[in-house]
């Protein structure tokens, strides 16, 4: 269903762009044919990017395909927004054309001495909503096209710079009512949605590890969507994770992307274990700090159900001492509903990317209870990080990449 909706959206988007940027800005001839060909080639690059992941071609088609997705998206958004002012200006031009006087010969005057009278035909045309003169119509279409093109290019350029730059370090204090005072000040470095892939390179991982180590956290929590491919393809990109530093270790829970591989996340779980990152698969561990104990649990992503590995809150949280505070690692914010039923004090999640490309944050909010930041659901709090990487286009607009330092307070 997702693939069908995506394909329909892409085809409709390209048809709309051809109508507004090619059909209405050019006449019949070479220029129109050339612009049409460019649009077709960009559509082909976009399709090849998504097919390339399965065919092994993604590395050389990914950049043009993914960048065009972002440019296409913002072209469509800007052009749609401009439809209203475009219609207003078009109506104004039609009225101006209707009011322009035309020379018509009077019956009683010589043909060489015209009398100026209003042109009823022009007024009737304006009343019927017919367009302004061809020259004005073409000028309006080209002006709108230039504004949309400059706006889309500028927005995507800014978004690429943001996505490929250093993540923002967000420092968040979370007060847990029943937290043992001896645990107050315990710090979690939280990172999600690293999305190791053909566009990131090993430098992406090295930078994230360097920034996490600089926070000197007690616990490192990687809450899903670490990779977009197999160990065979992306294993070398994960190697810097073995240099993660923290007092009580680094922990990982699966995200939905870990289940995109038909083989499941097993190979990556094993690989991470060799790198010193422990995976919590519907289980929990005790974090002992200054003589007090905190329950740290992790559940599989909801996408694991299709692979026979659904999240199991009862297994991860059942039978524990409920007088102790608990922190749950769960990839998707929507899992907080079940977490609240099991008395979790704090859930750490990712998945949303904060929307990644505005205004997608509005769409994400329809699916997830929290897009980013800290929220409360009954006695359970959830913090949703925007993620340190990107998925699809290497673009982030309105949602810069993030690494979070969460400090627990009593």
Helix content: 40-55%
The count of DSSP E runs of length 2 or more, i.e. the number of strands, is 14
- Across the major sheet, the strand order is 3-14-4-5-6-7
What distance separates the N and C termini? 46 Å
What radius of gyration results from the CA coordinates? 29 Å
Cofactor: a divalent metal cation
Keywords: Hydrolase, Membrane, Metal-binding, Transmembrane, Transmembrane helix
Region (Disordered): 110-131
GO cellular component, one term: membrane
Write the layout of secondary structure elements.
Layout (H helix, E strand, L loop, with lengths): L1 H22 L6 H26 L2 H24 L1 H17 L2 E3 L10 E3 L2 H8 L6 H31 L3 E8 L11 E5 L10 H14 L3 E5 L7 H8 L11 E4 L12 H9 L2 E3 L3 E7 L2 E7 L14 H5 L8 E4 L6 H6 L4 E4 L10 H8 L5 E5 L2 E5 L17 E8 L1
Parallel strand pairs: 3-14, 4-5, 5-6, 6-7, 9-10, 10-11, 11-13
Antiparallel strand pairs: 1-2, 4-14, 8-9, 12-13
Task: Provide structural commentary.
The protein is of the alpha/beta class and 410 residues long. The chain folds into 3 domains: 2-81 and 133-161, no CATH class; 85-127, no CATH class; 167-409, Purple Acid Phosphatase, chain A, domain 2. The chain is 43% helix and 17% strand. The chain has helices at 2-23, 30-55, 58-81, 83-99, 120-127, 134-164, 202-215, 231-238, 266-274, 313-317, 336-341, 360-367, and strands spanning 102-104, 115-117, 168-175, 187-191, 219-223, 250-253, 277-279, 283-289, 292-298, 326-329, 346-349, 373-377, 380-384, 402-409. The longest helix has 31 residues, at 134-164. The protein is elongated, with a radius of gyration of 29 Å. Mean pLDDT is 89; it is low at 119-130.
